[in-house]
Design a protein that fits this description.
homodimer, alpha+beta, two-stranded antiparallel ribbon, 5 helices, 10 strands, 26% strand, globular, Restrct_endonuc-II-like (chains A, B)
């Protein structure tokens, strides 16, 4: 039973769940963006807005799928949905186009400092990434270790392989480091993840179009 | 003011709006799929399901964006959205990946037999198609003349050009014929629109990767 959609709980988060405000003065050069109260989702959305405005890429977060049961149409005002339910998603949260390449990815964050629990990814997301890989999409995950302010762009194939492994409930940060390209938070864009995508594209060209991701 | 989202009114359609049932016996070989009560959206969704199952392409309809205001979490049952509003979309309804190509399209149907009113496309859809074209996506529209049971896959560039023309409120069916690839309804998939996409890809290769769509 779906209580709320994955990756979209930010909107309903209680204030007590918000990332803590920074406790001490941080020098300008060391600005820590995750300390500024931004979730990984917000960082990606800001980056996508930047990429769109600069005509670098077109990537959007997909809306949360909702099953609408009852709608009121009050006179002289907009329609109000009075009863609806969260539906199971069948894809990842983000997709789009960059230099002719199809991009597809899922973003997850953890407060854990040493491991990333694989249950953060749901089966439908793993299957969707597999399907897109077969169509030669550039598929990856963005994993944020928020307590460490470290962000990794990991090829989907590595996560898919780990996810299907029996008795493997998490990946260590060392594994993530080995498989991924680490992205440093910036100002514009906040999370320049296309730098990693550029490297994936270069790798693919080196391999003569053979699927590596 | 958004009363309901474009292209998604099917769910709230009154029964009186449903396509009329066929009046006379139609021979098996002449099965008319639009007469079977399928909207263009349903035909595309069925085709996408077929393409996905056969591992031919991964294309999904994007969920309708909803602004959620109030959610109840009853004990021992799933969350219920009690107040929400339709939000303006910022993209087209469909995108996905096929043979490494990014696909992006919008589908519209009309009961008109001679013209297709351009107001069926909204400005945000036209702008989104322009943005995706700049990223070398394969962008198009599927236009259904339901009264004629004729379906056209039209390169986005043609529709964009017509849409921005002053004093042009519609395109004639002759113009649509000239610009488009006509698709015949089938059984599996119901609307084999990738046949047109194959031709767009071939055209692009002929033009040495130059943007033609």
């Amino acid at each position: 039973m779906v209580k709320y959609p994955s990756g979209s709980s930010a909107a309903f988060r209680k204030s007590s769940d918000k990332p803590k405000k920074r406790k001490k003065y941080v020098h300008k050069d060391d600005i820590n963006f995750s300390d500024r109260g931004m979730t990984l989702e917000q960082m990606i959305n800001e980056s996508n807005k930047y990429y769109l405005t600069k005509e670098i890429a077109v990537v959007h977060k997909k809306p949360t799928p909702i099953q609408i049961v009852k709608v009121d149409y009050p006179k002289r005002s907009r329609a109000v949905i009075k009863e609806a339910y969260f539906r199971q998603e069948s894809t990842t949260d983000y997709n789009g186009v960059y230099k002719g390449y199809y991009l597809d990815f899922e973003a997850k964050e953890t407060k854990n400092k040493t491991n990333f629990p694989l249950k953060n990814f749901h089966e439908h997301q793993i299957i969707h990434l597999e399907q897109c890989l077969k169509q030669q999409g550039i598929c990856f995950t963005i994993i944020g270790f928020t307590a460490l302010n470290r962000y990794f762009v990991t090829p989907a194939s590595a996560i898919i392989k780990a996810w299907w492994e029996k008795d493997k409930s998490s990946v260590t940060i060392e594994e993530v480091e080995e498989w991924s390209i680490e992205i440093n938070c910036g100002f514009q864009p906040t999370l320049p993840y296309l730098e990693a995508v550029d490297q994936f594209i270069a790798d693919r060209k080196l391999n003569n179009g053979k699927q590596k991701l």
